[in-house]
Design a protein that fits this description.
Blueprint lengths: L2 H7 L7 H4 L3 H12 L13 E13 L8 E11 L11 E10 L10 E3 L10 E4 L4 H12 L2 E3 L2 E5 L11 E3 L6 E6 L3 E6 L1 E2 L5 H11 L10 E5 L9 E8 L5 E2 H10 L5 H21 L3 E3 L1 H21 L7 H13 L7 E3 L11 E3 L6 E3 L10 H4 L6 H17 L6 H20 L9 H22 L5 H11 L3
């Protein structure tokens, strides 16, 4: 979809005078240019913002000057300087939920974006509304009642109760999105980087709920921007799901086990069971396909392209490229005997941090089905081999072993080997294809994931770069 079509597909007709003010964005732009690049969810790190264009504006709560706060929802496209070797680049679209207050209380000082010098919000404080517990509470009230504001639509599952007045608290540790917990009942994920279409984090959990799969919390309510075309899909902006209090995420559980040198194989085996159950339910509920040599060759070509682009951005990777390409060449060749590989909808970004284990039953759940946010939405919604998720989880066990208390010492690496094997065993026992029976597929997907990790760490957490580079060396050696 072209940039113009993308904008048209999620365009919203303003329904209040403030949202329609022609100088609204121009008055906010200097403040946003300083604030947006500092946010964890901003994807354009390292490139100068040259301007913004307004995709939509909606007053969710009137922004009056009478002393009460308002909420302004914006979709803006950030125009940026093109990276090296590219003449142009399409700007990413971001969702901003801005609080507007005549006199901001001191406790909200960390949320301040600034005071516009002109325009319809002149002299008023503009701040991140998702750091204001009161405004977050009002957002939940809006989700309780299906309906429209302008071209924004709020919807919910029938027969599910959303109590009023639940206390709101933002989750401080954020990555590509923002989340708010309401009491001990619900969690709202607000998507920040927006692409036209249904987000997999709404689509897949709803499909799993239809399949009666209890491994994934089912969506309760959501909001979206309606498509401009009659046959177009709405654009998902936020999803409310049950909160699982008392559950611990798999990443922290793994690090805890490593810190006391405890075995983790039984937990990994049970997690393999849970993953296979989710994959089976997705395959039963959503369309599947079969990949043959041309499709596998195309997947391998995209992997090779990502490898070459990453090597240009991270020269440390370059010496390993010839051997890493061998994994992708092997993937391209496995369809030569006419055999096909099943492809289906998958999680798309599975790792220990996307899993929760209940404290009472020790039952695993999978969360966050958005997929890798850096990849295009159309790619994230494409059927893929289920073993791609398995390979990603194996990388996560390796990450834990190398970044935990042992720091990749021999005991930690043996912990990773045994844990990876137990996860594969559990996956096969629960009806999934035994990952160990598809070495070419597994090596290609694990290599592709390690290359992704190299680029991510180089951009966001350089101190962590040795972790994926250790995997690169292992995979290049054919291990």
């Amino acid at each position: 979809m072209s940039d113009t079509a993308s904008t048209r597909a999620i365009r919203n007709t303003p329904d209040r005078p403030l949202a329609a003010a022609p100088d609204l964005l121009s008055s906010l732009a200097p403040l946003l240019a300083a604030w947006v690049p500092r946010q964890r969810w901003f994807a354009g790190k390292g490139r100068l913002i040259t301007g913004f264009s307004l995709v939509s504006a909606t007053e969710l709560l009137p922004c009056t000057a009478d002393g009460t706060p308002g909420i302004l929802q914006l979709l803006v496209r950030a125009q940026q300087a093109a990276p090296p070797n590219r003449a142009t680049v399409a700007g990413d679209c971001y969702q901003l939920l801005l609080g507007v207050h005549p006199a901001l209380p001191p406790q909200l000082a960390p949320a301040v974006i600034g005071r516009p010098a002109g325009g319809p919000l002149r002299g008023r404080s503009v701040y991140d509304a998702l750091l204001d517990n009161r405004l977050c509470g009002l957002l939940l009230e809006r989700l309780r009642v299906p309906g429209r504001i302008g071209a924004l639509r709020f919807d919910r599952e029938e027969g599910l109760d959303i109590p009023s007045g639940l206390p709101a608290r933002p989750i401080a540790t954020e990555q590509s999105n923002s989340s708010i917990v309401y009491g001990d009942s619900f969690i709202l994920k607000v998507f920040r980087r927006i692409a036209p279409g249904i987000n997999p984090d709404l689509e897949l959990p709803r499909a799993l709920a239809d399949a009666k799969c209890a491994r994934v919390p089912a969506p309760v309510a959501w909001f979206e921007a309606e498509a401009a075309e009659a046959d177009g899909e709405p654009t998902t902006l936020g999803v409310l799901q049950p909160y699982l209090p008392g559950s611990a995420d798999g990443w922290q559980l793994a690090l805890n086990a490593l810190s006391v040198r405890a075995d983790f194989t039984s937990s990994a085996r049970a997690l393999g069971h849970a993953t296979a159950e989710v994959h089976t339910a997705l395959a039963q509920t959503l369309p599947t396909t079969e990949l043959h040599r041309p499709q596998l060759a195309a997947i391998a070509a995209r992997m090779t392209g990502r490898l070459e682009a990453t090597a240009r951005a991270v020269p440390l990777l370059q010496p390993y490229c010839p051997r890493l390409r061998e994994a992708f060449d092997a993937l391209a060749g496995i369809g030569g005997d006419g055999r096909g590989w099943a492809a289906q909808r998958i999680h798309g970004d599975l790792h220990l941090g996307q899993t929760l284990r209940s404290a009472d039953e020790g039952r695993w759940s999978l969360i966050d089905f958005e997929g890798e946010p850096a990849r295009p939405l159309v790619e994230r919604r494409r059927p893929q081999p289920a073993l791609r998720d398995v390979a990603a989880m194996l990388r996560s066990f390796d990450y834990a072993a190398r970044s935990g208390p042992g720091g990749g010492d021999p005991w930690s690496l043996e912990w990773a080997r045994r844990t990876r094997d137990a996860y594969c065993q559990g996956y096969a026992e629960a009806g999934g294809l035994d990952p160990r029976s598809a070495p070419e597929l597994m090596r290609a997907y694990e290599t592709d994931k390690a290359v992704y990790e190299v680029l991510y760490e180089a951009r966001h957490r350089p101190d962590w770069l040795p972790v994926p580079m250790a995997a690169i060396r292992r995979l290049a050696a054919g291990a």
